[in-house]
Amino acid sequence: MSSDRIDLSTEDSLVRGCVRQDRRAQRALYERFSSRMFVVCLRYARDRDEAQDLLQEGFITVFSKITTFNSSGSLEGWMRRIFVNTALMRLRKGDVLRGAADMDEPVVRGVSSGEDLLSGIGGRDILRMIRQMPDGFRAVFNMNVIEGYTHPEIAEALGISEATSRSQLSRARMWLQERLRGNMKGK
């Protein structure tokens, strides 16, 4: 009996169990990371239903590729990359940036530091606004501002030019600032 039991308290034991396709280890991994990965999915999705779909797709990929995790970095970081890539694959399939135009100069009219705009606004409100962004803006904004991707990395991941990545980020920031200004006027 004791050989049948797995210690699921450490990430290493979870990974080893998942490599052996042990359902208890897979369930424990899901329970440990699903809420954090759902937040990642929400940032890229239009709504909670789409985020839930991305979460399921991401975990299918995690379980099918768990043998490639080499423990050199954090398990959460490795998984986060998978979930971001899952969301990006869906965006590429939808070709959300097909009509995005390159801009030679970033759009900077009316851009402020943003500190005044953020006072009195909670994190949930900001995340809600980000989810309301057009798909292309949201993807580039999340990748650059939240995930820390560079414009060359974004361009490669989304199949766009670096100039398009920069212009989409600039437009996303303007879009968000306009919504934040509107939120301030409503108070």
Automatic annotation (TrEMBL):
Name the UniProt key words of this record, in alphabetical order.
Sigma factor, Transcription, Transcription regulation
Q: Where is the RNA polymerase sigma factor 70 region 4 type domain?
A: 125-176
Query: What Pfam families would the database entry show?
Result: Sigma70_r2, Sigma70_r4_2
Q: Which CDD domains match?
A: Sigma70_r4
Q: Which GO terms describe its biological process?
A: DNA-templated transcription initiation
Describe the location of the RNA polymerase sigma-70 region domain by residue ranges: 29-94
Give the top-rank taxon of the lineage listed in the UniProt record for this protein: Bacteria
Q: Entry's PANTHER family?
A: RNA POLYMERASE ECF-TYPE SIGMA FACTO, RNA POLYMERASE SIGMA-70 FACTOR ECF SUBFAMILY
Q: What is this protein called?
A: Sigma-70 family RNA polymerase sigma factor
Q: Which organism is it from?
A: Candidatus Coprenecus avistercoris
